[in-house]
Amino acid sequence: HGLERAHHITRTVSDDLGRKLLVQFLGLEKAEGSSSRPLDRLEIETPMLAGALTPMRRPSSPAVVGALLASATSIGRAASSPAAETQTAECLTGSASFPEELQTYHVMNNTRVSPDSNILRVGFQGRNYLGFDDRTPTCISVYSPNAKAKSYSPISLPDERGTFELLVKSYPMRPGGGVGAYLCSLNAGDTFEAKVKSKRVVHRSSDIVGRWSQVGLVAGGTGIAPLYQLLQILLRDDTSVISVLSINKREEDILLKTELDELARKHPGRLRLTYSLTDENKPGYESGRGNVEMALRALPKPSLKREVMVFVCGKDGFVESYGGRVEREKTSDGSKGKKIQGPLLGILKDAGFDESQVFKY
User: Fold this and answer.
1) pLDDT on residue 43
2) β-pairing, 271-277 with 191-196?
3) pLDDT at residue 88 in the model
4) Does residue 202 lie within any of the structural domains?
5) Residues 330 and 228 in one domain
6) C-alpha–C-alpha distance, residues 136 and 134, integer Å
7) 3-state secondary structure of 265
8) Both 180 and 306 in a single domain?
């Protein structure tokens, strides 16, 4: 039990206090004369604690192993107290705070990037980075005064230290809404409240690295935001080939185009971009919201079966046209239930994809 508890509270150690705590309890120290760089994160795999302690010195005798087991047990006992739980939350969560915890974030700068969209660079204190880890896309719920919460996915990587970036469209203010307009109105130094949401599960797993050899990203307008974060993770940590289909009204409305083009330049052979415009015709662009023929040209082939996944993100009508409605579970009290994928319909079904190959945001 002690080992399991030690695994739970020390799974990710990413700050100086966490390292000191671990050294104190487990009696570990860096090997003398070691040239290894400082330990940023130490992941301890139960049940073989000793096998994952590099670049720290591994215990090499039964006596040391016995001491290690005893220390792990003491950690389990200590961690069961409220004070220990508080200290653990403060010093060992190098990733996000607990998802249900509302936090205050401050705007560092706010830049207009299209006629109706801004990018906010946001800072925060008390944690090293916003995300759960460096490979899991992050999403937050932002609250504005007298308005419902709205979900936003940062366009920065989830392990960016101390800051993150939000791409926000300034929809008009309306009763129970208008979070986008509220965020776009903030200036440097202003604050807002938000909380990190639970990990998004994509067909029974929150993992996105190492699952598919071909990935398609279909974005309508600001729907590119969560897909852009996912794209960056895959390009950095995976070997999959990625196809992006970004659909906007006009050329000036294409969000993150400079960044996407730069990524394509840096990753030739791994990233393919297709842009389509609905309100104007220009050389070098597809035309229209999309159809089966465009999908088959721009996205991975559905014949790849389990090797392919297509993500679709945008306004409800856009997502519905490509993959059918995202539905909600029924609840006994009539409240809004959890989102579920619902049946696959629309362009992607007509193009030959099946439900296991598509995920709708």
Assistant:
1) 36
2) unpaired
3) 29
4) no
5) yes
6) 6
7) helix
8) no
Residues annotated within the binding site are 152, 167, 169, 179
The more confident residue out of 128 and 103 is 103
Binding residues for FAD: 152, 167, 169, 179
- For residue 76, give the 3-state DSSP assignment: helix
Amino acid at 267: H
List the beta bridge partners of residue 150: 142
Q: What pTM was estimated for this model as a whole?
A: 0.71
Q: How many residues does the chain have?
A: 361
Contact (Cβ atoms closer than 8 angstroms) between residue 205 and residue 356:
no
Question: Which of 107, 123, 119 has its CA nearest to residue 228?
Answer: 119
How many secondary structure helices (H) and strands (E) does the chain include?
Answer: 10, 14
Dihedral sign of CA atoms 22, 25, 28, 29 in order: positive
Q: Answer yes or no: are the C-beta atoms of 199 and 140 closer than 8 Å.
A: no
Cα 109 to Cα 190: distance, rounded to the nearest angstrom: 9
245 shares its domain with 341: yes
- 322: pLDDT strictly greater than 70: yes
